[in-house]
Amino acid sequence: MSILKPFDKMPVLNMATVLFVGTEESHKEQLAEAMMKESKTFDVKIHLAKSLPLPAEKDHIRPRIDLIVFLINLQSQFSYTTVVSSLSYVDASFFLGKVCFLATGGGQMKHTIVEMSTVKKLADSHLSILLFSELNSERDCCHAVQRLLQMLRICAGHVPGVSALYLGSMMRWTGPISEAV
After folding, report:
1. Are 20 and 48 in contact (CB under 8 A)?
2. Could you say which of 1, 15, 32, 111 would form a disulfide bridge with 43 (CB–CB 3.0 to 4.6 Å)?
3. 18 neighbors 65 (Cβ within 8 angstroms)
């Protein structure tokens, strides 16, 4: 068991690595495929995991992870529980702008098991960005990927003068929960 740390490896020029963590394989693969199709000015490495910790035996070949995206399906308590248990394997420095929560399945409010306010509180307690996306259509997926790529570009240090910490503080909602959801 190893805890993921954001600065334990050197960055690679014109490359960024994103880690998708979540139980929904179809959503992770859908986002990964859309991310590879999207035009970008840097190379992207994508890693998929159902949960953390990642296997320690492959740590020496694993690249530096620039952004962790936790996928939460609002229609699955297991999805939420897996993400919550995985958070303990992430170093606190990652929560300075290099972690994002992506909630899906909230479009059909009567079928949600996990409340949006619960996910909002989770993101707030970890000072992290929360995005909502349905991923039902190619357009929705493309929009979510474009936002994630913008964040990844900043988190990897490819935008001069803008840090992941600055991005995190600018994108977080600071109003009451009732207004955010």
Report:
1. yes
2. 15
3. yes
Q: How far apart are CA 92 and CA 108, in angstroms?
A: 34
Whether 134 and 93 have beta carbons less than 8 Å apart is answered as no
CA 66 to chain centre: 10
Is the distance from CB of 3 to CB of 142 less than 8 angstroms? no
Q: What is the pLDDT of residues 57-110, one digit of tens each?
A: 888 889 999 999 999 999 999 999 999 999 999 999 999 999 999 999 887 777
Residues 156 and 48: their CA atoms lie apart, in Å, by 18
Taking alpha carbons only, the member of 116, 94, 74 closest to residue 18 is: 94
Sign of CA dihedral 122, 127, 132, 133: negative
pTM: 0.92
pLDDT one-digit tens code per residue, 30-43: 999 999 999 999 99
What single DSSP character describes residue 165? Answer: H
Cα–Cα distance measured from residue 145 to residue 127, given in angstroms and rounded to the nearest whole number:
21
